[in-house]
Amino acid sequence: MIAFDADDTLWHNERLYTAAQSTLKQLLAHYHPPEWVEQRLYATEMRNLAHFGYGIKSFALSMIETAVELTEGRISGGDIQQIIDTAKGMLAAEVVLLDHVQDALEAIAPQHTLMVITKGDLYDQEQKIARSGLGRFFAHIEIVSEKRPETYAAILRRYDIAPERFLMVGNALRSDILPVLAVGGHAAYVPYAQTWAHEAGERPEGNPSFHELAHIGLLPALLAAL
Amino acid sequence: MIAFDADDTLWHNERLYTAAQSTLKQLLAHYHPPEWVEQRLYATEMRNLAHFGYGIKSFALSMIETAVELTEGRISGGDIQQIIDTAKGMLAAEVVLLDHVQDALEAIAPQHTLMVITKGDLYDQEQKIARSGLGRFFAHIEIVSEKRPETYAAILRRYDIAPERFLMVGNALRSDILPVLAVGGHAAYVPYAQTWAHEAGERPEGNPSFHELAHIGLLPALLAAL
């Protein structure tokens, strides 16, 4: 069984957030320098994670809250609406596959059962999988609220898979790699150009179940060598 | 297999939305009569469903958008923050079980496999199930983005259950009852005092798989009679 993270592993995602942040920085340019807006937004997101969880709607609410806070309530209704419209634009954005994804999935699908394990908003993630055109490759789709070792352990139990027969492919050390290694699975780390600070982590150097790929096109070769 | 809807079937929920609406009506009382605020909010929610899906975060974004629209952008930052704080209050609200729920589950759990099938926000619903103290009764929890006949058909396939061995218990004709009957299952409708207009539907009178209970405490007797 090979499982894939979705955002920034199968398709571009973080750049939508980066673009939305730029919009917010422009809206608040009269009040604060962009670095400060970014820092306060990140602090708001971290504080709100326990209320809102992950995803674009949570991000939108944190952007609005940051705008209110950083303007001491002077933000205009029109600017608030622009933030909401930015979020709607993110939700409706075209799903742009990463290079090599289509070829890699086609190469390995005949020999392996594939699944998606992704975090975030249920509705948004389902829409993206549908719009990506990749749905046919995946036997199972698991949308989860957090990616902890227990999350992966529960999925392995649910599908009755031994950890040593499980490989997770993803771009976030914190969510896709370290918790999978913790439960005895294999993990292939495919770094993405931009990764959210919250998802950073240390490479588990020396762990024989840890693999790093420069891009997902190298996955078939890794599988052949395992 | 007996499946339960969660919001307004196992615990009170709609009244949180009603209370939040009252807050919005008060905030906008200088601009519009309460009936108009309610009507515009519902229209905004319906329009945003395709973008945002269900749940409190979606509701919060629709409340903010309605407030901006109905004040022609003159809503203050402080009032926007109050709407966000109202949403956080909803997300953190105590889970108050409906009468008879605990007893009914205890009575039927020894003889039946129980599950939850609930719609809405993944993170929020998981938190509520955990806080409800009812988690131990349920072998499976399915959080779905829509409750269509295909949704139930997929769940029946996934757990390998014949439709005639499946009973869904819920308060929404549109989501819990009609689509289950459409795939050949049994459905027990337990009306709730307040049901969101969007979830209304017609009682499928005369369908022998349709049952109506005045309250969930009558479920064990229904099961004994089936």
Summary, kept brief:
Chain A has nine helices and six strands.
Structure overview:
The structure is a homodimer of 226-residue chains. With 226 residues, chain A is of the alpha/beta class. Chain A has 2 domains: 141 residues, 3-Layer(aba) Sandwich (Rossmann fold), CATH 3.40.50.1000; 79 residues, DNA polymerase, domain 1. Chain A is 49% helix and 11% strand. Chain A is built from 9 helices and 6 strands; from the N terminus they run E-H-H-H-H-H-E-H-E-H-E-H-E-E-H. In chain A, strands 3-2-1-4-5-6 form a 6-stranded parallel beta sheet, sandwiched between helices. In chain A, strand 2, helix 6 and strand 3 form a beta-alpha-beta unit. In chain A, helix 3 packs antiparallel against helix 4 and helix 7 packs across helix 8. The mean pLDDT of chain A is 95. Chains A and B meet through helix 3, helix 4 and helix 6 of A and helix 3, helix 4 and helix 6 of B.
Assign the CATH architecture of the largest domain in chain A: 3-Layer(aba) Sandwich
Helical fraction of chain A:
40-55%
Largest interface: A-B, 37 and 37 residues
Total number of domains of chain A: 2
Radius of gyration of chain A, in angstroms, nearest whole number:
19 Å
- Name of the level-1 CATH class of the largest domain in chain A: Alpha Beta
CATH superfamily membership of the largest domain in chain A = HAD superfamily/HAD-like
Q: How many alpha or pi helices of chain A?
A: 9
Oligomer: homodimer
- What does the average pLDDT of chain A come to? 95
What composes the largest sheet of chain A? 6 strands, parallel
- Write the H/E string of chain A, N to C: EHHHHHEHEHEHEEH
How many β-strand runs of chain A?
A: 6
Low-pLDDT runs of chain A: none
% residues in beta strands of chain A: 5-15%
